[in-house]
Amino acid sequence: MFSSKPNYSQLKTNLKICMNRLKLLQKKKTELAMKSRAEIADLIATGKIDRAKIRVEHIIREDYLVEAMELVELYCDLLLARFGLLQSSSQVDCGLVEAVSSLIWSAPRLSSDVQELTTIAKQLSLKYGEPFAQVCRENRDENVSERIIHKLSVEAPPKLTVEKYLIEIAKYYDVTYEPDPQVMKHDAEQQLIDIGIPNLPFIPGGGLGGGGFDAKIGAVATAPAASIPFNYPQPSVKTIPAARVDDEIPPPYYPSSKEFDFDDDDKKMPFPDLPDIPSDSSRKSTPELTNKE
């Protein structure tokens, strides 16, 4: 009779083995991708563009796969770092729900390369129940990482991505390549989408810092007469009158000495009565102290 409880020791061991295997696979696939890039450069040089595009699509999928493996490795590391929390709680912690859901979802898609993921997904299913595992496999709660879903997608890569890969490979290996004008035209149109926001006229050196020439005095930046989107109420623009440069600057004011006649003030101010100075006769009447031998 099979046990319905998870084996935490087995789960922890497989998480560590999975991380090591993912690191080795990432290194191996990256080295193979570099060799494939050199072969694609040779195909471009010989004019075999169609074959080069097919090879580039394979490289793009491998690059996506490597990035997905990096994310799975991070999720395994997260579960190991919070293994005590995972072991003690019966419900999925909010800080682990994305990691647990992504590992269960990616297990059948990466099991051919990383067999340990199957064991990890099985132990997590025993931990949180089969209904929860089924929700993760179908991503009904949308807790699976969107990046992993995108990287492990089986759809063909966009044509624009293929062209950009070819351009970079040709540039790296110094090979002449003319990209597809229709694809690049579509990219240029996407980059020049007008979102309807009017552009304000630029006034060099006007108020916000930076170099350039100073704006003319009294200049006000106003929006053009284009329609403003979303029908937001717009404040009225008021022109602040500028100072006249040709106005004469008044001379500095210095008070004259007549306004402050200190002599007159001294005459008006009464002096206090001073004590009398003792005379010489009063000093002689004071007995003198003599030293007696």
UniProtKB/TrEMBL annotation:
<feature type="compositionally biased region" description="Basic and acidic residues">
    <location>
        <begin position="281"/>
        <end position="293"/>
    </location>
</feature>
<keyword id="KW-0206">Cytoskeleton</keyword>
<feature type="region of interest" description="Disordered">
    <location>
        <begin position="241"/>
        <end position="293"/>
    </location>
</feature>
<keyword id="KW-0597">Phosphoprotein</keyword>
<dbReference type="InterPro" id="IPR005061">
    <property type="entry name" value="Ist1"/>
</dbReference>
<dbReference type="GO" id="GO:0015031">
    <property type="term" value="P:protein transport"/>
</dbReference>
<dbReference type="InterPro" id="IPR042277">
    <property type="entry name" value="IST1-like"/>
</dbReference>
<keyword id="KW-0963">Cytoplasm</keyword>
<dbReference type="GO" id="GO:0031410">
    <property type="term" value="C:cytoplasmic vesicle"/>
</dbReference>
<keyword id="KW-0132">Cell division</keyword>
<dbReference type="GO" id="GO:0051301">
    <property type="term" value="P:cell division"/>
</dbReference>
<dbReference type="GO" id="GO:0005813">
    <property type="term" value="C:centrosome"/>
</dbReference>
<dbReference type="Pfam" id="PF03398">
    <property type="entry name" value="Ist1"/>
</dbReference>
<keyword id="KW-0968">Cytoplasmic vesicle</keyword>
<keyword id="KW-0539">Nucleus</keyword>
<protein>
    <recommendedName>
        <fullName>IST1 homolog</fullName>
    </recommendedName>
</protein>
<comment type="subunit">
    <text>Interacts with CHMP1A, CHMP1B, VPS4A and VTA1. Interacts with SPAST, STAMBP, and USP8. May interact with VPS37B. May associate with the ESCRT-I complex. Interacts with MITD1, in competition with VSP4. Interacts with SPART (via MIT domain); leading to the recruitment of SPART to midbodies. Interacts with SPAST.</text>
</comment>
<keyword id="KW-0131">Cell cycle</keyword>
<comment type="similarity">
    <text>Belongs to the IST1 family.</text>
</comment>
<dbReference type="GO" id="GO:0030496">
    <property type="term" value="C:midbody"/>
</dbReference>
<dbReference type="GO" id="GO:0005635">
    <property type="term" value="C:nuclear envelope"/>
</dbReference>
<comment type="function">
    <text>ESCRT-III-like protein involved in cytokinesis, nuclear envelope reassembly and endosomal tubulation. Is required for efficient abscission during cytokinesis. Involved in recruiting VPS4A and/or VPS4B to the midbody of dividing cells. During late anaphase, involved in nuclear envelope reassembly and mitotic spindle disassembly together with the ESCRT-III complex: IST1 acts by mediating the recruitment of SPAST to the nuclear membrane, leading to microtubule severing. Recruited to the reforming nuclear envelope (NE) during anaphase by LEMD2.</text>
</comment>
